């Protein structure tokens, strides 16, 4: 059995979940479920990033102790993911005792390797992004990533010899062309690494809300070092049983944190003598109705409200279907409603409803030669999913949904009877059965509902071939309901 280890970023608890974090988590869940469907031994990790200046400040604003604040906020994430049917195997919090002691042990290893030395940091700091920035990196005096104010920092700090790992990193990229995925994101990072790496600050003296640096208790460990280690602390590095899942097969992240994951993280792992992960996949960013999503603009989209309004599977589907592989995309409720009405209600819902109506009325034998297997290429879908291309995979599955609807129309099934009708129904039901297996990772509740109506057991990828149909039909109502225009929040 192949192992498969997939992770999401751990989210800052200063925000509650929004569609950005929900998107990453849903896409990762789809991939994790897909691998389970293929029979792999999967470990899927998500969690929360709870230390650092940003959290310290937010808890002060809330008038709470940081840990108390963290507890309240972390539970918002774990409960949101439950509502989204996320099947994570663990939920890591960086304030977990075990994580804290593993981070201390990890940084000690870097220190013992001679890769950490004392110095003084003088430069800029973006608190919302928890990032150190040089004068040259600033854009109009602000953070180049988020456009917010930066502040001048001058303090004693320990540094990690990132510069030492330039060649090793370039070798890693060279030997593993898909390490930085999608490929179009790799050029910029590789060029920056080729341009030379500066050692990075990895401790702070002015921030108390962090893990104590074991070599000097006046310092706390920089929040990004603490955060990245979650990917191995959750497996109980160094010798916990779950380390068999390492190296991670895929770290799924948003594009803005690619540098930390593709440069700093593997360099630290090299220093500690640990293998690099296999792939870092950066997806694009959602804008909302054409604008950047931000608290100050007041346009954060709440995934729980969305889900309560449209249903969890509709949102999971929309996430997978709307955002092209690795690119940016715009969220709009109008678009969401159009997809629900067109693709879920008309394409899939209608297909299942009319097919089961036909099948229920028919009392002959459901049997025939496979015809609808022609355009369906399960191997191709598998390849797309292995490449984390959920966008094209769902598109490919939808081709089969449309093909099946077209087949019913072309055959004018409602006019047939006897063996001829039995054969058409056979083709339609087998096609729907296979569709229900393939959409399972994307829309688990819908897949389950279809299977219940077909009267078939839970199946895996090996059952995606046309064979005999031996379900016991039990037709129910429609899978999805049409959304009226007036029901939309802003539509
Ligand atoms: N705590 C760090 C990650 C540490 S991982 C070792 C962090 N947290 S975050 O709360 O800011 O979450 C960032 C992640 O949320 C992004 O990488 C991305 O996955 C997701 N998104 C946040 N806003 C987003 C959009 N507008 N669109 C899509 N995803 C975005 O960074």
Describe the largest sheet: 6 strands, parallel
Number of helices: 16
The tally of beta strands, per DSSP, is 15
Q: What percent of residues are in strands?
A: 5-15%
Which structural class do you get from the secondary structure elements? alpha/beta
**How far from one another are the termini?**
47 Å
CATH homologous superfamily grouping of the domain at 332-463: Isoleucyl-tRNA Synthetase, Domain 1
CATH class label of the domain at 332-463 = Mainly Alpha
What is CATH's topology name of the domain at 332-463? Isoleucyl-tRNA Synthetase, Domain 1
Mean of residue pLDDT? Answer: 96
Main sheet: strand order: 3-2-1-11-12-7
The helicity comes to 40-55%
What's the SSE blueprint?
Elements: E1 3-12, H1 19-37, E2 41-49, H2 53-61, H3 66-83, E3 90-93, H4 97-112, E4 116-126, E5 131-133, E6 151-160, H5 166-175, E7 180-181, H6 186-194, E8 200-201, E9 203-204, E10 220-221, H7 223-228, H8 230-233, E11 250-254, H9 258-272, E12 280-283, E13 286-288, E14 291-292, H10 303-310, H11 312-322, E15 329-331, H12 333-361, H13 378-386, H14 390-411, H15 418-439, H16 444-454
Parallel strand pairs: 1-2, 1-11, 2-3, 7-12, 11-12, 13-15
Antiparallel strand pairs: 4-5, 4-6, 6-8, 9-10, 13-14
Helix pairs in contact: 2-3, 10-11, 11-14, 12-14, 12-15, 13-14, 14-15, 15-16
This protein binds 5'-O-[(L-methionyl)-sulphamoyl]adenosine.
Residues 9-12, 20-21, 23-24, 49, 227-228, 230, 253-254, 257, 285-286, 293 line the site of 5'-O-[(L-methionyl)-sulphamoyl]adenosine.
């Amino acid at each position: 059995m192949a192992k498969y280890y997939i992770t999401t970023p751990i989210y800052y608890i200063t925000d509650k979940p929004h569609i950005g974090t929900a998107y990453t988590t849903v896409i990762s869940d789809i991939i994790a479920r897909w691998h389970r469907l293929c029979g792999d031994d999967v470990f899927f990790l998500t969690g929360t990033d709870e230390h650092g200046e940003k959290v310290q400040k937010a808890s002060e604003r809330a008038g709470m102790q940081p840990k108390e604040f963290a507890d309240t906020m972390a539970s918002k994430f774990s409960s949101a993911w439950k509502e989204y049917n996320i099947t994570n195997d663990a939920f890591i919090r960086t304030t977990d005792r075990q994580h804290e002691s593993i981070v201390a042990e990890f940084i000690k290893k870097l220190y013992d390797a001679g890769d950490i030395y004392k110095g003084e940091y003088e430069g800029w700091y973006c608190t919302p992004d928890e990032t150190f920035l040089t004068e040259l990196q600033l854009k109009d005096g602000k953070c180049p990533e988020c456009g917010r104010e930066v502040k001048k920092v001058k303090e004693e700090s320990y540094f990690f010899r990132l510069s030492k790992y330039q060649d090793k990193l370039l070798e890693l990229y060279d030997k593993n062309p898909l390490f930085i995925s999608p490929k179009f994101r790799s050029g910029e990072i590789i060029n920056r690494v080729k341009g030379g790496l500066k050692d990075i600050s990895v401790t702070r003296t002015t921030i108390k809300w962090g893990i104590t640096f074991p070599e000097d208790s006046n310092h706390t460990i920089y929040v990004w070092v603490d955060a990245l280690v979650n990917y191995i602390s959750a497996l109980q590095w160094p010798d916990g049983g779950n380390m068999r899942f390492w190296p991670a097969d895929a770290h799924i992240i948003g594009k803005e944190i690619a540098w930390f994951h593709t440069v700093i993280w593997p360099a630290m792992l090299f220093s500690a003598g640990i293998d690099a992960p296999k792939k870092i996949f950066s997806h694009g960013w959602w804008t909302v109705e054409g604008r950047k999503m931000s608290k100050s603009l007041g346009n954060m989209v709440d995934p729980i409200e969305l889900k309560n309004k449209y249903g969890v599977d509709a949102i999971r589907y929309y996430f997978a279907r709307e955002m092209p592989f690795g690119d940016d995309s715009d969220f709009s409720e109008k678009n969401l409603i159009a997809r629900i009405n067109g693709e879920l209600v008309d394409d899939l819902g209608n297909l299942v409803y009319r097919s089961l109506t036909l099948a229920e009325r028919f009392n002959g034998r459901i049997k025939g030669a496979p015809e609808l297997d022609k355009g369906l290429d399960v191997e191709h879908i598998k390849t797309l999913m292995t490449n984390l291309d959920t966008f094209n995979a769902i598109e490919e599955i939808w081709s089969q949904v449309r093909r099946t609807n077209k087949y019913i129309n072309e055959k004018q099934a409602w006019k047939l009877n006897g063996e001829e009708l039995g054969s058409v129904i056979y083709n339609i039901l087998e096609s729907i059965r296979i569709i229900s297996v393939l959409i399972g990772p994307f829309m688990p509740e819908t897949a389950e509902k279809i299977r219940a109506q077909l009267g078939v057991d839970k199946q895996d990828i090996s059952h995606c071939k046309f064979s005999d149909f031996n379900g016991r039909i039990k037709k129910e109502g429609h899978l999805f309901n049409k959304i009226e225009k007036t029901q939309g929040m802003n539509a």
